[in-house]
Write a structure and sequence with these properties.
nine-stranded mixed beta sheet; homodimer; alpha/beta; 482 residues; 28% helix
Chain lengths: 482, 482
Amino acid sequence: MSEVELLRRDERDVAAWDLEVDVLVVGYGCAGVCAAIEAREAGASVLVLERSGGAGGTSINSGGFLYLGGGTILQKALGFDDSPENMFKYMMAACGPEPDEALIAPYCEGSVAHFEWILARGVPYKESFFAGAHEPFDSDDGLVYSGSEHVHPFSEIASPAPRGHAPQSIRDKGALFMNRLIAAAERVGVEPAFQSRCDALVTASDGRVVGAIAATLEGEQRIRARQGVILTAGGFIYNDSMLERYAPLLLQCKHKVGTETDDGLGIRLGLAVGGEAIRMEAGDVSMAIFPPNSLRHGIFINHAGQRFLNEDVYFGRAGEIILLHHGARAYLVVDDDYYGRPLNFPIEIAAVGDTIEELESELGLPTGVLQSTVSFYNEHAAKGEDPLFHKLPQYLTPITKAPFGALDLSSENLVYSAFTLGGLRIDANARVLSASGAPIPGLYAAGRTTSGIAKQGYSSGMSLGDGSFFGRIAGRHAASGS
Amino acid sequence: MSEVELLRRDERDVAAWDLEVDVLVVGYGCAGVCAAIEAREAGASVLVLERSGGAGGTSINSGGFLYLGGGTILQKALGFDDSPENMFKYMMAACGPEPDEALIAPYCEGSVAHFEWILARGVPYKESFFAGAHEPFDSDDGLVYSGSEHVHPFSEIASPAPRGHAPQSIRDKGALFMNRLIAAAERVGVEPAFQSRCDALVTASDGRVVGAIAATLEGEQRIRARQGVILTAGGFIYNDSMLERYAPLLLQCKHKVGTETDDGLGIRLGLAVGGEAIRMEAGDVSMAIFPPNSLRHGIFINHAGQRFLNEDVYFGRAGEIILLHHGARAYLVVDDDYYGRPLNFPIEIAAVGDTIEELESELGLPTGVLQSTVSFYNEHAAKGEDPLFHKLPQYLTPITKAPFGALDLSSENLVYSAFTLGGLRIDANARVLSASGAPIPGLYAAGRTTSGIAKQGYSSGMSLGDGSFFGRIAGRHAASGS
C-alpha cells in the first residue's frame, strides 16, 4: 500500500469512530492555539493533536514578533502613522513575486483588531520603540522595524512604519507570547492531546474531510470531526528529502528554524485529500551578521567584486538575495573604523589587507574590480550619496581606514538560518483550496503548513502574524462550518 | 462537489466500464507516441486520448531537437568524443540546483541506444555539424551545440561535446520528427482517439490507478486500463492561474511555447491521486537575441551597469539568468562593428551614444559605472582575456567603435519564450511517485507533465529528449505491469 492511502482514508473504510469532536486541530503552535481558542469560544468542542510532548511548536522558541500594522494601538501610542492601505503597499511590494493579495488584503485590514485580540489574551507589550536597526536582541522594547520598510526601495513605495510587535521580555519572547495564548486556550476549555500524531485524513465520498486517524499513546484513534479539521502542523525545514525535491537551495542553510516535527506532514496530509501546495521553493533565509549595526557601514560584494544591495536591509532580505541570486557567495568589506564581529554567529575573515588592492588580491579577484567598486562607493559616500543602491546616509562613510577586511558570507562558512514558506494554498477564510480554486469542504489550515502572506521577501513577525491571524479565522469558520 | 472529486473517482463509484484496454496513454505528443509504440510492441492493447483534433502536441511545433550524447552514432561519425560519464557531468552541473540524478544517470546511460531507436523509426539526421553557436535556424545540419557545453563554466567541468541532434530539415524539424514517430505508431497498431479529454483517474481502494473517465465525442467514456495509465499531457505554460500560484516569474514571458492544452491538466490528474509535483517554479526561458552571433561581441549589463555573464552562453541560460536573477532588466551593449538586429524577434534600442559616457547617461546610469565596466572589459578583451566571466576568445573584442548602442533586454520590451519544467515526480521506471517516494501503482508519466531531467538550466532538446526517453520506459513498464 502506498503512502497515498496512508495519508487519506475513505469514510467507507472506517468501521467506527473512537471519538467525536466538532473541530479537530492538528498541531499546537501559534496557529493551532489561536484556531482552538476561536473555535472553542464559538461554542465548538475542540481537540488539539500535538505530536510532541508539550505545547508551543516552533513558535515557542521563536523571536515572538508579530508583523502587524495599519495603525495598531502600539504604533499610535509611539507616534507612528500607518494605515491598512500603507501596510498593504509595503507587503505587496515586499512579499513577492506575485504575493497573495487575497490573504494580504484582509491581513492588513484586520491587523489592528488582531493586535487587540492578542493583548486581550494577556500578551504584554512595552510602549517603547527600539531605535536600532531591526531586531532588538537585548531589549524589551515593544515596537521595531522588523523588515525593510525604512530602506530602499520600500521607503519610496510606502510610508515607513515599524510593524514588528515584540512581547515585553529581553529573552524568550516566543515563550512569553505562546504561554499566554496557551493559558488563554486552557481557560476556555481547549483540550490538547500530546504525543498524538495525525496520520491520515478521512474523506467522505463527496471529498469532504470528516475526520482523522491519529497515532496516540492509547493506540490508533479514529476521530470524527463534525465541523472540520484544521491543519496547523508547521513547515518542512526538517525534512531534507522534501527540501531536495522542492527547495534545494535551503539545504545550504545550516541552521534550521523549527522543530523536528516540521517535516511537512501537515502539507502532505492536505495534498493527499486534493489540496494544492504552492511556492514550495520559498523560504526565509536570515544571515544574522547584524548586530553590530556598525557593519552596515561596510559593503556587500559578490564573487565578481561588485556591489549589489543596500547594506541597510533586513538581514532576511540580505540572506535571501545572496542565497538565491549570488550563489550563496559574497563578502562584507569593512574598514578598521567599522569592523566588528557579528554578535550572534561566528564568522570567518576571508581576507585582510593594508590596501584595497591587497584585499582584492587576497580574495583572488582580478586586479581592479574591487578597487573600482570601492572607489566609486567612496566617492559618493563622501557626499552622503549612494546612487546605485541608495543606502541610508547614516551608514554612508568612505571605506578608507586600513587595515581592510572581508568577512566571508558564503553559506559554507557562515550560518544561514532558514525555514520554509511554501505550503497549502488557502483562501481568506483559511479554507484549503484544490487546484480548481474550490475549497475542500471540512479542511482548513494556517501557519507554515500554508503558503501564507509572504511568498518570499519575509519580514520578522510574518509567520507568527499570519499563523495567529488565519489560525483564528480557521477556528471561527470551522466552528460555524462555513 | 469540489474539483478534487472531478479529477479522481473511486472504483466503487464506477458502475461499469465502457471500454477496456491494457494501457491508456493521455496525450499524443512525443512522450505519448513513444509510450504508445513501446506498450504496443510489448503486446499490450493501447488507447491514446488526445484533447486536440490531431496528433503531435507541442512537440510537432517544436525545434525538433533531441538532447542526446554519450557517444551516439552521429557524434562518432562527426568525430566528437563523448561518454555517458562525461554527459552526466555536464548535466549534473547544468540542470540544477539539485538535479535529479535518478533520472539523469539512466538518461545518459541509455542515450546512445535511444538515438538508434529513434533512427530505426525513420527520423533522418544529416551527418553534418553546425559550426555556428547554438541553434541552426537556417540549416539542416544534424548536430549542434544546443546548450552551454563549450563555454564557461561547463567547458571546465566536462569535456565539451555537441548533443543537439536535429532532424534533417531546414524548417519544421519538429513536424518531421513527430510525423515519423506517429507513422511508426500507426504501423504497430496504436489507436488514437482525438478530441478526447481525460477528466478523471479512477482508483481502487488500495490507491492503484485502474482506469480513467474521458470526455469524448461520444460522451463520457469509462475506460478500464488493466495495466496502467500513462500521463503525457504537457506542462502548464498556458494556465496563467497555475503560473501565478507556482511560477509567477514566467508570467513575464510573452511567448508561450506550447499549445492551449498545456494547461496543467496532466499534472493535476497526477496530484489528485496522490502524486507529487515538484520544482513547479522552474521554466525554460529563452531570450532569442542570437543569431546574429556577432552580438556575442557585445556585453550584457544589468540595471547597475555591471556585467554579469559570459555572453557566449546558450540563449536559454541568458534568459533564465536575466529573468530569475536580474529582475528581467538588462541591456546588451555593442559597438558599431558588431551591431545587428536579432533575426527572430524585434528588439528595442534603449540608447545610442557617440561615447560610452553618453550611452551611460542615456540609460540613466550614475556617471562612471558603465564607463568603468566597459573600460575593464576592453582592457582585458584587447589581450583576449575575460578574467571575470571567461567568454570565449573569439568573441572578445574591445568595444571601441562609435556609435555605441544598448539593446533593451527587459521582459517588457523583448519577447522571452517560456515553457514550464515543473511537474510530477517520477522514478527511473517513469512511475509517478507519492510524497513517501513510493510509486502509485498503475500510474506512469513522462514529458513536461513531469519534472524531468532539467529542473532549471535547460539546453535545447532536453524536453523531446526526456519525453521520448521516459515515454518509452513508461510504455514498456506499463505493458508489463512493473
